[in-house]
TrEMBL record:
The chain crosses the membrane at residues 20-41. This is Type IV pilus assembly protein PilE. Keywords: Fimbrium, Membrane, Methylation, Transmembrane, Transmembrane helix. PROSITE patterns: PROKAR_NTER_METHYL. GO terms for biological process: cell adhesion.
């Protein structure tokens, strides 16, 4: 009887671990999941910071609407009663500039994917009310908040991207002074 118990104990003591192939399969599955999830997460974080910049521009929207109710869309920050463009900054926003009633939110170097690029909030007069349209002349769509990905909602013109005395348009739009027109 003693040998049977010892034999059974020996049998129970032979607990086997995972084989090398099982561990390799688990590591491969985790690697595939990480390869898919990491880029999506990085895009999400950039998109959330772009959204934060749009939220920061809400004060400028109020200023544009206030100036509009007093006689028309403001031409610049001073006409809207705001500080100069470079004085309005946040953690991710380098400047907020009003250009003919439209608000340009330019991002700083905190986020490399958005550095020096901008989002436009276009103000359109709709018979006594202002309709806001959001787009970007130079930020990839995957980094834009969902509400800013539809250029088709925007008007037939948008402000050109001007550096000094030189202006340009993106997405095949045609330069017309300091504005871009749909082709």
């Amino acid at each position: 009887m003693r040998g049977v118990i010892q034999g059974r104990w020996r049998h129970e003591a032979r607990i086997r671990g995972f084989t090398l192939i099982e561990i390799m399969i688990v590591v491969a599955v985790i690697g595939i999941l990480a390869a898919i999830a990491l880029p999506s997460y990085q895009d999400y974080t950039v998109r959330s910071k772009a959204s934060e910049g749009l939220g920061f521009a809400s004060a400028a929207k109020v200023a544009v609407v206030s100036a509009y109710s007093s006689g028309g869309l403001p031409a610049n920050n001073a006409a809207a009663g705001l500080s100069e463009a470079g004085d309005v900054q946040s953690q991710y926003v380098d400047s907020i500039q009003i250009e003919g009633g439209n608000i340009r939110v330019t991002f700083n170097d905190t986020i490399p994917q958005l550095y020096g690029r901008s989002v436009m909030l276009a103000a359109k007069d709709r018979g006594g009310a202002i309709d806001w349209c959001c787009y970007s002349p130079d930020i990839e769509g995957r980094y834009m908040p969902a509400t800013c990905r539809d250029d088709a909602r925007c008007a037939e013109t948008r402000p050109a991207i001007c550096t000094g005395m030189r202006c340009r348009c993106t997405d095949g739009w045609i330069l017309d002074g300091k504005n871009c027109k749909k082709p």
